[in-house]
Every structure is written in structure tokens, then in C-alpha cells.
Amino acid sequence: MQTLGEFIVKKEHDFPHATGELTALLSAIKLGAKIINRDINKAGLLNILGANGVTNPQGEAQTKLDEFANGALKAALEARTEVAGIASEEEEDVVIFKGEKAKNAKYVVLMDPLDGSSNIDVNVSVGTIFSIYRRTTAIGLPITETDFLQRGRAQIAAGYIVYGSSTMLVYTTGCGVHAFTYDPSLGEFCLSHEAVRYPTQGHIYSINEGNYIKFPLGIKEYIKYCQQEDEATGRPYSSRYIGSLVADFHRNLLKGGIYMYPETASYPQGKLRLLYECNPMAFLAEQAGGKATDGTRLILDIDPTELHQRSPLFIGSQSMVEKVEQLIAESSKNTF
Ligand code: AHG
Ligand code: MN
Ligand code: MN
């Protein structure tokens, strides 16, 4: 059995100039995840369910656990010498850590501390998403928001924790995707899936079909395509939608499938946030042989302009993402 800590150190030896800093940073995330996991598991017993009466920077109701998870992860990262600052779904502005050590720290972290938080009160899987970049401001100077507004392609590591029937941490540093299952009796994440790849043919599509009437034409056509019978591609596909990006993505990664959140009437730019939801998941998807686009552009090639900017997202098995892209392109030609 191999623990996450051992695995990261072993992998680091593959990089000749590695300094151990990324290893230390990932271990801070691991600690944050253990703390969040502990409290999520006891959620029904503690007074931590429900809303806290605060609205987050995107105008969505914050839950007590959103606030708690944000605090736990922020504290774990601030305690280290490797992180210059963080950006979070639950923080309006970037948080620039204080002191000399932060001025010299090499990395910035973006995070969605609790993803799918509307599921928490009903005991359905939720997650944590993280994305790590090298700072762009020179070492020794205070970082600014610009350090966080980098293309997804520049990520040096990304991953998620899924708090499901078991808790798993899944990450990439650009050398494949590796997954670790938490053993509560040991207090350790243990390697359970090395070098995860999407199955060649997926059979699952995940989308909130309650928004169907307002979907763009290409998406409606893709849904129809998923539902049509065809032996060669194994259609009709199954529809599965949890409403936690992390959990939906995780299932589709292991089983083969596509997750879609297009633009809708309520969310004309899409609902998901580019920097701490779409980009880290897109990095993982590409590293597992899949694809992630906003319908026309690769997610990882989008130049961000705002910290909390949203984007449509089509992510999963490559052939499925390419099919929906094709139908989006054809439907846009037909309207002119
Ligand atoms: P968060 O809880 O971090 O705000 O994210 C919720 C996101 C995502 O996880 C999920 O897939 C999507 O919102 C669900 O949205 P709908 O309820 O509109 O389907
Ligand atoms: Mn989220
Ligand atoms: Mn969230």
C-alpha cells in the first residue's frame, strides 16, 4: 500500500530540479481535506447544516459548511511557506498572505472549498476543488490579483476531493491523473487508482435538464442524440446528474461520460466559475485523455479577465465532447 505522501515524494524524484515545495503544498491541501472530511461526516450531529445568512461574492447563499471549508483550507495553506495567497469562491477578493515568508512564496492557490454545497443537507456527495499556479510577480514583491488571472494551461497542479461513499483525493501535476482513497482508520489517503484514463466509449450524459427549454439549439440536439437508439455507439446513453460538479465529473471519469453546464436563462455566461471550477477539472480531463471546452474553445486556452468569471462547460470523454461541439457549430451556422 502506498500513501499519498509517499507517492508524491516518489514522483517528485522524477523531476531533477524539484525542491519539495510542491510536495509540501499538496500536503497542506491533504490536511485541509482531512479536516473538511471529518466535519462533513458529522454534519448531521453538529450545528453546521444550512445557510449562514451570508451571500457569497456571486450572490449565492453561503452555507455554514462553505464558510467552514473555506476557513479550514485557507488556514492550512497560510500555515505553510509555499503559498503567497489564495483566491476562493467564498472570498470576494484575492487573499494575499502577510509576512516575509508569503512575499517569497512561489505559488498561488485557487479553490472551491465546498462544491455542490446544496447537497450537503441531504447527505449527497460534495467536493473540494483546487488549482495551483506559479506566481507571476517577482519573488520578494507582494503579489496582486494578476498572479491569479492566468490561463488554465499554466496550472502546475490541480485536483479535487470527493466526499462520497468513500472520500477520495484525485490530482494531477501534468503527469497523468492519480486517485487516492481515504482510510479513516489510518488517517491516510492510499493509492487506489494510478494513471486514470477515460474509457474509450462513454455512455453517460450529465446535465440539469430542468433548464432544457432555454438551452441553445446545439445542446438540445445533443440531448436528442444521446437519447436516440444506436447499437454502434451504445445509445441511448444513461442520464445521471448529482448536482455536484466534482461527483458528476468523478463518475464520468471512471465510467466514461460527459458533464455539461451550458449558458441558461438564469446564467447567460454559464454557471460554473472558470478559475476554480472549470480550469482544474479541464486539466484533469486532458490528463486522463478527455477534453474540456466552452462549446468552441478549449477551457485551458481561455484568457481570464475576472476572478469570479463564469464559463459554459462541456467536459468528459473526448468523443462525446467533440460530438456536442460539432452540433453546437452546426446549429450556429443554421441560425445565420
Ligand atoms: P457550488 O456548490 O460550489 O456553488 O457549485 C455548485 C455547482 C456545481 O457543483 C453543480 O454541478 C452545479 O452548480 C449545479 O447547478 P444546478 O443546481 O443549477 O444544476
Ligand atoms: Mn462549485
Ligand atoms: Mn462551492
From TrEMBL:
Pathway: Carbohydrate biosynthesis; Calvin cycle. Its EC number is 3.1.3.11. Residues 3-194 form the Fructose-1-6-bisphosphatase class I N-terminal domain. It is found in: Cytoplasm. It catalyses: beta-D-fructose 1,6-bisphosphate + H2O = beta-D-fructose 6-phosphate + phosphate. It is an enzyme of class 3 (hydrolase). GO terms for biological process: fructose 1,6-bisphosphate metabolic process; fructose 6-phosphate metabolic process; fructose metabolic process; gluconeogenesis; sucrose biosynthetic process. Mg(2+) 2 binds at residues 112, 115, 277. InterPro entries: FBPase_C_dom (IPR044015), FBPase_class-1 (IPR000146), FBPase_N (IPR033391), FBPtase (IPR028343), Fructose_bisphosphatase_AS (IPR020548). One of its GO terms (cellular component) is cytosol. PROSITE patterns: FBPASE. GO terms for molecular function: fructose 1,6-bisphosphate 1-phosphatase activity; magnesium ion binding. Residues 199-327 form the Fructose-1-6-bisphosphatase class 1 C-terminal domain. Its cofactor is Mg(2+). Belongs to the FBPase class 1 family. NCBIfam families: PRK09293.1-1. Homotetramer. This is Fructose-1,6-bisphosphatase class 1. It comes from Candidatus Regiella insecticola 5.15. The gene is fbp.
